[in-house]
Write a structure and sequence with these properties.
With 446 residues, the protein is an alpha/beta fold. 40% of the residues lie in helices and 15% in strands. An 8-stranded mixed sheet has the order 4-11-10-9-8-5-6-7, with helices on both faces. A 3-stranded antiparallel sheet has the order 12-15-14, with helices on one face. Strands 1-2 form a two-stranded antiparallel ribbon. Helix 8 links the parallel strand 5 and strand 6. It is globular, with a radius of gyration of 23 Å.
Length: 446
């Protein structure tokens, strides 16, 4: 707690460095409250303006957040490397962990055979001048995107979806600019927006994707970028429907002041049609990652977009990381080209759909309406997240509190279904029903 942390420093730089050190070591835990500006200034013998500058610098870097009357607090997931024990407490013995949001490892395609084949035919080493996007990978990627109605555009490769989004935002926006993001939305994206010093504007989401009125309101509030999850939205499972895509395209048509970013992270695992918005605005990008269907360690995403946007991303990559490993590109190309891998991914997608739909159906039998149109997560609204998470923990289930994913959306919990079995559904649904509708304590006798 901050009350036990020894703050120090006589300048804004020293004070902010001390607070960052406390966050990094875990002495200031996520969510910890910091002293009011005037109180800390009095303790340190400095002016309130000095403390205010230190707090402002940390807020701009995404380490702190102002929570209204609750004061200034450490962000739930501050963008600074911390001791892992401080970020994730050990799970209770015997608890089933449904909080991680990861695919079932048992359903991922084995990489060994393809790695062995690559090792047997490595060829000459790639030189710095020759490295970049492999033409054969680009050709297959374009064909796969074209099959889903995504316009060809220019193409490059990034180190995963979030890496691509970071490069896109960095290429078009500056600290202080506003970004329209889904609410609830991907926790990593919310953290990234904070770390870049950008201002998030939450856009409400329903099962069909970002709501048109919410996007219109964000545009009116000055949003310079809009990030949309095409399918398997994290945490709600939303997927942009044909009708919603048509309405959003009409709203966005021809805008030259907005960067449109689409994230199709689930790709082949999403068993709903893709309805892309790509090309609706002058500046746009569509990202498709390989991590969900083929394995989280495969940090690669295909990025297509308008010529200027892709050129900015590719140019920034060239003067930084340089390129995504051609060994990794060749591995992904081998996986895409293997019919047996296609079949494994198809079975995995079907399995996730069965688990997700099974949980939704069982919850409906308890009178609960949860959300999960696609993907590996189910989003269940609850009256109080803390009591719900605690009740589920006591029942042997670990779920993610919705606060990690919300800006102004209503409380909820996220349940990852990837490790569920059919015989888990009844007991899990009963525990979720109890958590969502806890029995009130008995009143005092009269």
């Amino acid at each position: 707690m901050s009350a036990r942390y020894q703050f120090s420093g006589t300048t804004a730089v020293e004070i902010s460095a001390g607070i960052e050190s406390g966050i990094r070591t875990g002495a200031l835990s996520p969510g910890a409250a910091l002293p009011p500006v005037r109180a800390l200034a009095a303790d340190l013998g400095v002016s309130p303006a000095t403390v205010a500058r230190a707090y402002q610098e940390l807020r701009q870097r995404g380490l702190l957040v102002t929570a209204g009357r609750h004061g200034t607090r450490v962000r739930p997931r501050p963008p600074v490397a911390a001791r892992r024990s401080a970020l994730r407490p050990p799970p209770l013995p015997g608890a089933r962990d449904l909080s991680r949001g990861e695919p079932d490892r048992r359903l991922l395609p084995p990489l060994g055979p393809h790695l062995a084949a690559l090792a047997a035919d490595t060829g000459p080493s790639v030189s710095y001048s020759d490295a970049g996007v492999l033409p054969e990978l680009a050709e297959v990627a374009r064909a796969r995107l074209d099959a889903d109605g995504v316009p060809a555009g220019e193409l490059t490769i990034t180190g995963g979806a979030l890496d691509g989004i970071e490069r896109l935002l960095g290429a078009h926006l500056r600290p202080g600019d506003a970004v329209a993001v889904e609410d609830p939305g991907w926790a990593n994206l919310l953290d990234l927006v904070a770390a870049l010093g950008l201002r998030p504007i939450g856009v409400p989401v329903d099962d069909d994707g970002p709501m048109v009125a919410g996007v219109a309101a964000a545009l009116a509030a000055g949003a310079r970028a809009l990030v949309v999850t095409s399918r398997a939205q994290n945490p709600t499972g939303a997927a942009v429907s044909a009708e919603r895509a048509e309405a959003l395209r009409a709203l966005l048509a021809g805008r030259r002041d907005l960067l449109l970013i689409e994230d199709d992270h689930a790709a082949e695992l999403a068993r709903v049609p893709l309805h892309p918005l790509a090309g609706a605005t002058a500046s746009w990008a569509f990202l498709r990652s390989v991590s969900k269907p083929f394995g989280p360690d495969l940090r690669l995403a295909v990025l297509v977009g308008d010529e200027t946007t892709v050129a900015r991303v590719a140019g920034r990559t060239r003067v930084g990381a340089g390129w995504v490993s051609t060994v990794l590109q060749r591995l992904v190309l081998a996986l895409w080209s293997d019919p047996a891998v296609d079949e494994l991914v198809r079975r995995a997608a079907q399995s996730y759909e069965q688990r997700r739909d099974g949980l939704l159906t069982t919850l409906a039998e308890h009178g609960l309406r949860a959300h999960g149109r696609s993907g590996i997560n189910v989003w269940l609204p609850v009256p109080d997240e803390t009591s719900a998470v605690t009740a589920l923990r006591d029942a042997g289930w670990a779920v993610a509190p919705g606060a990690l994913y919300r800006i102004a959306a209503a409380p909820a919990v996220r349940v990852t279904v990837s490790s569920l079995h059919a015989d888990d559904l009844a007991s899990l649904a009963a525990a979720l029903a109890h958590a969502a509708n806890p029995t009130p304590p008995p009143g005092f006798p009269t």
